[in-house]
Amino acid sequence: MKKITVDSSRTTGKLDRYFARCVSASRAYLLLRADHREHLKMVHDTCGFEYVRFHGLLQDDMGIYRLSKNGEPIYSFQYCDEVYDYLLEIGMKPFVVFDFMPEALASGDKTIYWEKSNITPPADYDAWQELIYRITRHFTLRYGAEEVKTWFFEVWNEPDGWFFTGDREEYFKLYEVTARAVKAVCPDYKIGGPSVAGAHDWLPALRDHCREHNIPLDFLTAHSYCLTDHTPGVKSDADCHVPTWSPGTPWPLSNLKLVPGGATQSVDHVLEVMKDDPMEIHYTEWGLTFCYWDPLHDSYRAPSHMLRVLKDCMNKISSLSFCEVSDVFEEDGPPTTNFHGGFGLLTLQGIPKPSYFAYRFLAMLGDTQLFCPDENTLATQSNTGYQILTWNCDHFQKEENILYFGQDIPPEEQEDLLLTLESPLPGRYTARLYAVGYGINDPYTTFLHTEYEDSLSRDQVRHLKEQTDGRPIWEATLELDGSPFSKTIPLRTNEVYLLTLERL
């Protein structure tokens, strides 16, 4: 029997809730959709996310920048206001990303994704500076400087990869012009970048460039996903049920395998690169895989691997923004079926996936962390009681993600787990045990055994939501006298459990 013991008399400080600082949503235009708004509000209310980051603020579908017949700029913030008003209305704050290039201001016609986002530098940097100034000034006039001071502004997205046709020097120019425009509105607004996908040397390079030329830089940003490189010869996109579109992605979508803890390795490398002069660092995208059609996103195996990363990166960085809120997401085209391997914590219909419960359970932890030597456990204390979150992070995978996770994968039975809380305060408690694992808050496994035609019926969707409401799997009323309290759990591979003791 595996034993995990938590001593409530040994505290280690305040729990670092950096994991709930920010979450990623889809592009700006899709936040005009009612369903996507409902999904965002749900994860804010139940998981505690404070900020939301999304792409496409400057894309043509938002209508912010166009030209008249005479070639004069036309600025419109009507759609923009609808999006940002809603964010503030539900209690969230924006992590603003200035991307992608309006067609009327683009220096080229290179685009990416089904939505055809223009990824070229501006043809006229003076016009770009004026655009950024006007957007920032509009935010100030509408919401007030004191509110906007609490926001973050990030310049572009992954310019070191497929999202920018310019080189590093071109990005530095884009960053400088953008940062100066923002600070011209208010010097206290927070601006940063470079939002790199893997070129970590860009971070100290941007810092040094900004210091040398007296350019504002308040924080640094990067991205990471827990994947190996593409595996040659294993499987091609042609073998997958992945739709084609133009221009599509410049990378294959199927030859991917999970690397447990891969994002932690990226964070540690960035910290090593920046150790001579640490700055505030935000990971503004992270996930287990960047493939939009990867069933790992839907699998009960996901939350245990997510929790491993989220614990390992505590007290290291300022935020780690999960990509994404829900499957309302169209970079690679509209969803093809109910469970298609989309990025979301929720499906297109708002069904909570197992990954959602990683963040839901974290939100239920108390603010004071308790000492626990187990690497796969977080223990906390709140004003009302105690919480122990533990997970089994086993990994076995012989095939790439699409083949492996796109099937029913029964877990392996393992030794029982004995959770023990020492020195609890005497009193009467309600004890509850919550779980996510195979067949528990696991709609994808149910879906794999469900007969349906073109899509799930409304009754089937309702049934899946009822099965994934996160209710406790065990509950009891206890009278504790200060002696150790123990609970035995029959552990299986990749299961996650949250034990709470709430004082009555």
Tell me what the structure shows.
- This protein has one domain: Alpha-Beta Barrel (TIM Barrel).
- Helices cover 26% and strands 23% of the residues.
- The protein is built from 12 helices and 22 strands.
- The strands form 5 sheets. Strands 3-4-7-10-11-12-13-14 form an 8-stranded parallel barrel, surrounded by 4 helices. A 7-stranded antiparallel beta sheet has the order 2-15-16-17-22-19-20. A 3-stranded mixed beta sheet has the order 1-18-21, with no helix packed on it.
- The model has no long low-confidence stretch (mean pLDDT 93).
Features:
504 residues; single chain; 7-stranded antiparallel β-sheet; TIM Barrel
Q: Whole-number average pLDDT?
A: 93
Round the Cα radius of gyration to an integer and report it.
Answer: 23 Å
Please give the domain count.
1
Structural class: alpha/beta
Biggest β-sheet: strands ordered side by side in the sheet:
3-4-7-10-11-12-13-14
Using the coordinates shown, work out and report the CATH topology.
Answer: TIM Barrel
Report the oligomer: single chain
Known CATH architecture? Alpha-Beta Barrel
CATH superfamily: Glycosidases
- Span between termini: 31 Å
Helix content: 25-40%
